[in-house]
Write a structure and sequence with these properties.
The complex is a heterodimer of chains A (about 250) and B (about 300).
Chain A: E1 2-11, E2 15-25, E3 30-34, H1 41-48, E4 56-61, E5 64-65, H2 74-78, E6 81-84, H3 96-107, H4 111-124, H5 140-152, E7 158-162, H6 170-185, E8 189-193, H7 197-203, E9 206-211, E10 214-217, E11 226-230, E12 246-248
Parallel strand pairs in A: 3-8, 3-9, 6-7, 7-8
Antiparallel strand pairs in A: 1-2, 1-4, 4-5, 9-10, 10-11, 11-12
Helix pairs in contact in A: 3-4, 3-5, 4-5, 5-6
Chain B: H1 2-21, H2 23-58, E1 62-67, H3 75-86, E2 91-97, H4 99-107, H5 110-117, E3 127-132, H6 138-150, E4 155-160, H7 163-204, H8 206-214, H9 219-262, H10 274-299
Antiparallel strand pairs in B: 1-3, 1-4, 2-3
Chain lengths: ~250, ~300
């Protein structure tokens, strides 16, 4: 479903964020990406979503090599990947349902079917009573749920979310995580970046930990126990099945 | 196919929403483009209205053949007969003006009366006036006939009456080139206005464009509403421009009517035909879409 092969990502001249990253995520997995701020969690998600190209290496998502994907084909892959970024990027000049309808308008779905699907998505995240409300009138948690509804309305095969529970109270955070879990249960591969280790431990089946110079993968172990491969300088290398280094936690 | 049509419908709805979201700005743009478009429309009206006049006067050019003063009394009739016989296909009519009749007519003119009194005899020659059949290349045909007739015995001078027609044609040609240049200038104004409008829209819709791309919108999907914005704005502006030109023609025609009446003539300016106006509206809409495409391509690279 998602496969990284010796992926490097750096910005500007030499500022390496991710280096030599190799891993594979199978369909239906629920992966939690942990790590301190600036470690490269968001970058990793953007690489999966095809929102940024890698500096080196190959990334395969949903059967497509991203580096071999033409600019014309890229939008079609994005439809298969539901993305929820740290900033929800909601459109504040239109109602909640119109926000959710946008991904369906992009596919040219019939308006009646699109509206029914958008309503179902809003219902799934508990916002069916607020379909005509503008995002500015929604609370932080509701905005986050609206962003989730927009991401799942196209029935993506993969769902990626960057800090979806940040700055939310624990009850709202749990509610949002339950929504993700529900989608994961029906086979949607889910990758979430978060600082909240304890909360993620309740839902994720696998965890990655990114630290400057280190990458750990809990694959093959009871989540969230990490296998960490130490790297020299920014050289990171880890993957399921590779010889493990130290064990954290 | 249906999905593509739905996407076009969506783009059109987005365009109308954006246009109505800032009515003052949209209206100002429409008026700027409409006023600019009304100028070449008025120019075209002038040319279109002048063309029948030019055609009418250029179908009756005449050549006057003056005979030598010592020519016999029957020479003019003989020459007229020869012209009718040898150039029947090119001549619409021939008439003889005898020198006595010409002198009488001249004497009736008070400006010449005194001068003619002091002359011992009739200094005027007999003349034959030939009018040409209508058709193409009148000036060239008249010149060729004049060349031929100058060589005929008894002929002193052949005078072409086509010079003023040529002047009028040159004036119309000048008008056409002027109109073309004006149309090009207006096209540049339309191009710049639409480019800037779309640029402003693209910048203000940055967030929406980013989100659309995030959820899998193709570049065509992102650009389509802007192309509609360009073409809808220009189509509406062209229609308003036609309305402005039509309104402007009312006082112009009133003034022209007074002028024409003083010459015992009737003349009025009229807009080009509906078919031509339709072509103009479509051309302006296409120009707007092209300008919008250029602008959106340059201003959505983020």
């Amino acid at each position: 479903m998602i496969e990284f092969q010796h992926v490097f990502k750096s910005y500007g001249q030499g500022r390496s964020i991710l280096a030599d990253l190799t891993f594979k995520v199978s369909a239906g997995e629920f992966v939690y990406v942990a790590g301190p701020s600036g470690a490269g969690k968001s970058t990793l998600l953007k690489l999966i979503g095809g929102l940024e190209p890698p500096s080196r290496g190959s990334i395969q998502v949903n059967g497509h090599r991203l580096d071999q994907l033409s600019n014309r084909a890229r939008p079609y892959l994005r439809r298969a990947v539901g993305v929820i970024l740290q900033d929800t990027h909601l459109l504040y000049d239109r109602s909640a349902i119109d926000n959710v309808l946008l991904p369906l308008a992009v596919t040219g779905l019939a308006p009646s079917i699109a509206r029914a699907r958008a309503r179902a998505a809003l219902e799934k995240v508990g916002l069916s009573s607020k379909e005509n409300v503008h995002p500015i009138e929604l609370s932080g948690g509701e905005q986050q749920r609206l962003a989730i509804a927009r991401a799942i309305v196209n029935r993506p095969a993969i769902l990626i979310a960057d800090e979806p529970t940040a700055s939310l109270d624990i009850d709202t955070a749990r509610r949002i995580m339950s929504v993700f879990k529900d989608f994961n249960r029906v086979g949607v591969t889910t990758v979430i970046a978060s600082h909240d280790d304890a909360l993620m431990a309740e839902y994720a089946t696998r965890a990655f930990k990114i630290e400057p110079g280190k990458f750990a993968d809990s694959a093959g172990q009871r989540a969230p126990t990490y296998k960490t491969v130490s790297n020299q300088k920014p050289h990171l290398h880890a993957a399921a099945g590779l010889p493990s280094g130290e064990t954290s936690r | 196919m249906r999905s593509l049509l739905r996407q076009h419908r969506y783009a059109l709805a987005v365009t109308l929403r954006r246009l109505t979201a800032s009515p003052i700005s949209s209206l100002t743009n429409l008026l700027v483009i409409a006023l600019a478009l009304s100028l070449p429309l008025l120019g075209a009206s002038l040319l279109v209205s002048m063309q029948p006049v030019a055609r009418q006067v250029s179908v009756t050019p005449e050549l006057t053949i003056f005979l030598k003063t010592d020519a016999s009394g029957t020479a003019a009739e003989h020459l007229a007969g020869r012209i009718r016989k040898e150039h029947a296909d090119q001549i619409a009519g021939v008439r003889v003006i005898a020198k006595d009749r010409a002198l009488t007519e001249l004497r009736n003119n008070p400006a010449w009366e005194q001068a003619l009194k002091v002359l011992p005899g009739n200094p005027l020659p007999d003349a034959v006036v030939a009018s040409l059949t209508p058709g193409d290349q009148l000036a060239e045909r008249a010149e060729a006939l004049a060349q031929t007739w100058r060589k005929w015995p008894g002929v002193d001078l052949v005078q072409l009456d086509t010079a003023w027609v040529q002047r009028l044609e040159a004036l119309l040609r000048f008008g056409r080139i002027g109109l073309l240049l004006l149309a090009l200038s207006v096209a540049l104004v339309v191009l710049a206005t639409v480019f800037n409008t779309v640029r402003m829209q693209a910048l203000s819709q940055r967030e929406e464009i980013g989100v659309a791309r995030l959820v899998g919108a193709t570049e065509s999907f992102v650009r389509r509403p802007f192309l509609y914005l360009g073409s809808v704005t220009c189509s509406l502006a062209a229609l308003i421009g036609i309305g402005i030109a039509r309104l402007a023609l009312i006082p112009l025609n009133d003034a022209l009517a007074s002028l024409a009446r003083s010459y015992d003539a009737e003349f009025a300016l009229a807009l080009p035909s509906t078919w031509m106006l339709g072509v103009a509206v479509v051309s302006v809409a296409v120009l707007g879409a092209l300008s919008a495409r250029w602008s959106v391509q340059r201003n959505t690279r983020f």
